[in-house]
Amino acid sequence: MNDEITTPGAAASDGTDVSRRRFLRIATTTGAAVVLSTAAGVPAVSASQAGVHGAGGAGEKKLRVYVLVVDGLRPDEITPDTTPHLYTLRAEGTNFPQARALPVMETLPNHVMMMTGVRPDRSGVPANDVYDRAEGAVRTLDRPSDIRVPTLLERVAETGRVSGSVLSKEYLYTIFGERASVRWEPEPLIPITDHAPDLATKLALSAMVAETDPDLVFVNLGDVDRVGHADLTGTSLGLLRAGALSATDAYVGRFVDELRSSGRWESSVVMVIADHSMDWSHGHKVISLQAPLEADAALAGRIAIAQNGGADLLTFTGPEADRAAAVARMREIALATPGVLSVHRPGSLRLAPDCADLVVYCKAGWRFSDPTPISNPIPGNHGHPATEPIPFFIAGGHPRVRKGAMSSALATTVDVAPTVGELLGLPPIEGGYDGEVRREALFSRGG
Amino acid sequence: MNRRQVLRTGSLAAVGGVTLAGPAVAAGAEQPFRHGVASGDPLPDSVLLWTRLTPSAGATPGSGRGEESLVGWEVAHDAGFRRIAARGHVRTGPDRDHTVKADVVGLDPDTWYFYRFSWRGSSSPVGRTRTAPAVGSAVASLRFGVVSCSNWQAGQFAAYRHLAERGDLDLVIHLGDYLYEYGAESDAPRRHDPPVEMTTLEHYRRRHAQYKTDPSLQALHAAAPFAVTWDDHESANDAWSGGAENHTEPDEGAWADRKTVSQQAYAEWMPVRYEPGGKLYRRLTFGSLAELSMLDLRSYRSEQVAHPFDRGVHDEERTITGKEQLDWLTAGLTTATSQWKLVGNSVMISPVQFPSTLNNRELEAVAEMLGPIEGVPYNVDQWDGYTSDRAAVLRALRDHGVSGTVFLTGDIHSGWAADLPADPMTYPLSGDSVATELVCTSVTSDNLDDYLKLPPRTLSLVVEAVIKLANPHVKYLDFDSHGFSVLEVTPAQVRMDWFRLADRADPASAAEVTASYRVPAGSDKLERAPRSMDGIVPRHEAATEHELAAAHRQALARQEAR
């Protein structure tokens, strides 16, 4: 038995009600209920389609796009033994073995790139954590206003179609906010990791698809990443990681089965991608830049560090007149620190110039821990170039999907939006995409 | 004529009614283009053409005699030269031993061409070459022949003939030891000219010329473009920047002079974009699918250490590449946009520990094959002798998350396939590999059964099993076979097939596939392929499964006994 509850939202200044929300409470096969919030006007399939295909059956839509992000999945982890469903799905579609995440190789910037199609210097989200100059503090970019450009989620909704977000991590849920026509708020949240287990995420995805049948759903499955961060055994004996891979793989397999059994498969395009890869550091390979920077008389008390695992974003907080000399000194100190791979100006990585003065990467097998050497006790790590390689493949039963193909193209996370945009026939965005339509995976329209 | 049409014919011999492969292509001994034709270093819009003119009877290689000449060249879309794509003239003369190199530009990418030279009414044999695909373009497949270590005196070049007859190769990669410096050996099946060890410009030119008279080598050069690099024997055994194991001063003159003349002859006689004083290391690209970095591991290297226990192998000041080339290599690998980063690497980069469980006879034979050692066989002429440079390369791959690096290697007269461990200490547990290495065997040069003077696949099996036990990243090892390899590159995988000659002394020798290994995209790890790319079960390896298992047991027992 599903319930609908409509709540009045806040009135906009012109008096129109722009955020009128409705809650759908959907019973699931496990007995647990999934609660979705929707924009007004999103029909429930159980109401509109029942009797034609039965509750949860496919309607007349010719195209449905599902973007499944397996957070932190390494491309070499997709094997016939450990992830048979992903392996098969990949073999049935078009695979991009050269695919890479883009700087900074963290969750928020890459999810935002996927949904906007623009690099962080335009999207506004360069890293998970930045020093916010206006607020004078390091903070996580988890506010809806942090994304400065339209995302696919509202662009699809604006065309009268339905978009959905099923995001397992709390900060992903909050940054994408109410952009999608249908949203799932991750629950139950696991303490410390702040994410919902993939079991819950998968249930929410299935319920959302069955009940609201979105044209586009953006999904984040967080277990593989969260277990990767916590897995003290690293790659050599990553039993926990293997367990998470196996479980998440099974959830993806079940979702694909549901698409087939509900009759949606032939109209589905399923993109599977990761937002970054994963590297494991040893306990003695920790870089803490706060102390050496503070030890410098010109920098003491005038440095802010936003630690992003494999990348430190350094900002000089002193007077503007001192900035150039301070940045040169910061670069010098960072490069002299063991474990540091390279130092970059944000603009060279297509990050907004005001997000930091310098971006410092660590070598493979290392991690940053700032402000103190015990601030980051997590061995599983990403953000640095070693964690750029990601799985990225486009599968599904839709006739436009090229089956059993492999492409050498340098596909990246920023290509998702233009590719989805092309599939759904969305109008161009202002300034154009930074990513490319991955035509290698698609037959041309009517072709 | 596109590549598919050529492939369908199955053999070059049927293309356009022109015979390109096989002995028939060998230029007549009296005709002015008697050293054949060649092409090399294809770019998307150009390719380098090569020949040698003999303008008069006295203008023999190395003689310094003969007049200057103007040689014409033509490039056509068809074997009948009805659709000419480009034509021109090149001057040559005794100053460059009458060799001709024409860099033909303005060609279409990813296209087969036919070419020939002309002089005073005589035409050269027709060669066939292919430009590289356009930069960034999607490429479905590439096939390369891979060869090394072709010692004239050790046998016949049937391996080249087999490659020439395939008709499906886009390029042939020669990884060095294209020719050998040694003087004539009395018991050799065919003897070197000049009969002395080559030390002068005349010697080097004459030796190059002799090799270029081999009909199988001529056929292969005429069939496909080459990408070449030198190893040591193009100058002298175990060469380094300041000398060579096989160079004695002052009896053989100054090393600097010998190095200069060897490089001059190489530039003159090889279809390569290299001129004396320039850099041999260079990079070729093949659309978005692959790039090929050809290394020069002789010109800039520090002297080899005397023995494997010399701590100099880890000395950061010692180099195998030279700093400039190392920076060029690592920068290229970490910023590459091509999927597969192939590295033409004249000596092995995989770490190889040679266990002490071999008996004296085996040790001596392995030592004979692998180079300078004292007590324990350990090849300090390879990257193993320069661990700092190797660490820099592998570290760069790991730090930058570079996938798809495959080292293509020669030098060691044996077939190997190995993972390149990110960390050799943890590799047995983790299996983590940052790249792979595929080593082709020698065209003719001696290997283990030759040194042991035993039938192939007998005692060598035990030696191979022992080495693989001590080096779990080594997946395939064949110490006995001579032959060639074929490399196939696709977006899905890189794979190599190893072929073994039935008899290296027989120019008509049959060849059979011995093994096939592949690197699936994104894995940087080797897998054994059950069938070769021609669809054949590698009979040689399959047939020795039982023997390999027995050898493995034997090796384990010996290890325990000690």
TrEMBL record, chain A:
Pfam family, one: Phosphodiest
PROSITE patterns linked to this entry: TAT
Entry-linked PANTHER family: BIS(5'-ADENOSYL)-TRIPHOSPHATASE (PTHR10151:SF120), ECTONUCLEOTIDE PYROPHOSPHATASE/PHOSPHODIESTERASE (PTHR10151)
Name recorded for this polypeptide: Alkaline phosphatase family protein
Lineage: Bacteria, Bacillati, Actinomycetota, Actinomycetes, Pseudonocardiales
Automatic annotation (TrEMBL), chain B:
Signal sequence extent: 1-26
Residue ranges of domain PhoD-like phosphatase metallophosphatase in the record: 144-498
Organism: Prauserella salsuginis
InterPro entries: Metallo-depent_PP-like, PhoD-like_MPP, PhoD-like_sf, PhoD_N, Phospholipid_Metab_Enz
UniProt KW Signal keyword: yes
Name of the molecule in the record: Alkaline phosphatase D family protein
Domain Phospholipase D N-terminal: 35-131
Keyword list, A-Z: Signal
Coiled-coil ranges per UniProt: none
Upper lineage: Bacteria, Bacillati, Actinomycetota, Actinomycetes, Pseudonocardiales
A Pfam family of this chain: PhoD_N
